[in-house]
Design a protein that fits this description.
about 130 residues, mainly alpha, 5 helices, about 85% helix, transmembrane helix, Aph-1
Length: about 130
Amino acid sequence: MTAAVFFGCAFIAFGPALALYIFTIVTEPLRIIFLIIGAFFWLVSLLFSSLIWFTTATLIGNKDEPREKYLLIFGVLISVLIQEMFRFAYYKLLKKASEGLKTINPYEKAPSMRLLAYEPFYMEKAM
């Protein structure tokens, strides 16, 4: 019974993401690479956000209620800012990689930024 509950909950939790991955990402090998690189950039931004949160919480140290509220607001703002900075860096890296691919093989068409972004295949065929 425990195994059935585990697999049921796992399929409910991860089923939609797994379905999107199977039907949209796996069909394009280049998207798998960019998915992994994007996940790495997100994890590094999360690491930096948590380091800033930890050092700020350690420096504040007081369990005063108003300080905790402002510390939470500060943490959310800094986290969003860091994630957006890493997203911009990822975009710049993709642009540089696209330019590098053009210099290596000028006759082959480089992948568009629309292909590199996550869009389901039915959206691409409609356009």
